[in-house]
Amino acid sequence: MGEQAADGLSMTDAEIAAHDDQRDIGESGWSSLRALYAEEFEGTVLDAGGGTGIYASALDAAGLDVVLADVDERMLAAARGRDMPAHRVVQADVTALPFADASFDGAHVAHVLHVVEDWRRAIGEVARVVRPGGTVLVALGGTNQPGPVLEEISARVDEEVGGTETITRGQASGLNGPEEADHAFALSGMDVVAVRRIEGVQRRALGQLIDRMLVNPYRSTASRAVRAQAAERMSTWALDRFGSLARVIDVPVGIDYRIYRRRT
Ligand SMILES: C[S@@+](CC[C@H](N)C(=O)[O-])C[C@H]1O[C@@H](n2cnc3c(N)ncnc32)[C@H](O)[C@@H]1O
Hints:
The two termini are about 35 Å apart. By secondary structure, the protein is α/β, with parallel strands linked by helices. About 45% of the residues lie in helices and about 25% in strands. Strand 1, helix 3 and strand 2 form a beta-alpha-beta unit. It has one domain (about 5-145, about 165-200, about 255-260): Rossmann fold (3-Layer(aba) Sandwich).
């Protein structure tokens, strides 16, 4: 993927926590998300490019039978650590899924296609393994976290550890636009039937947001040592800029899904 975990090592608990914290949409957000899953899905669901399993857990909590597939062993190890049964965590490339045609009732693909070069083939594969009448939920791009303070911190983190460059490279090689997604799904026999946004809020201290961005190995390709050094400089900068790292801000977060249905 364009976003590479640094150092090529297993992710530490702190790194997994930092990655997942970005996805957190707060209690009411998760509750809305589980309701959406229960409404749109039934039976078996493939979480393609499922990463550490944060959405797979929510799918499971919504009463669905989830299989998580991801190419990155470090992510899979994190997913297994989340109590996903081993046989439900599969190492697989989304462009060549090891599953029979129509073997799932639905699929979930969140924040994945922008980092997959052959995203057209990935869409074809996801559509292939979903049965006629089945549903696919797709979230394009990365997590949506707007707001001026966060943008300023994020820009500074980019300067320190090169995140933007990494992420832009990833996006350049993958899928960006919804029209392209709709077109590729249509060619694979799936039509977009709805667009849904689930919103939430994160209350986070500024220091926590900074640490999270620096620790998350999917945010930057810099080594752990470089990120640790950057943390000291960032703290000095943030204290000077904002007065206190303990200042808590509300970060609006959300996940945008395009919902596709396989023609019968
Ligand atoms: C930004 S992460 C998103 C993970 C998870 N869906 C989430 O939203 O938390 C992108 C994921 O896609 C996976 N990925 C990238 N290319 C892939 C491929 N060709 N096949 C399967 N997984 C892939 C990565 O390993 C990573 O776990």
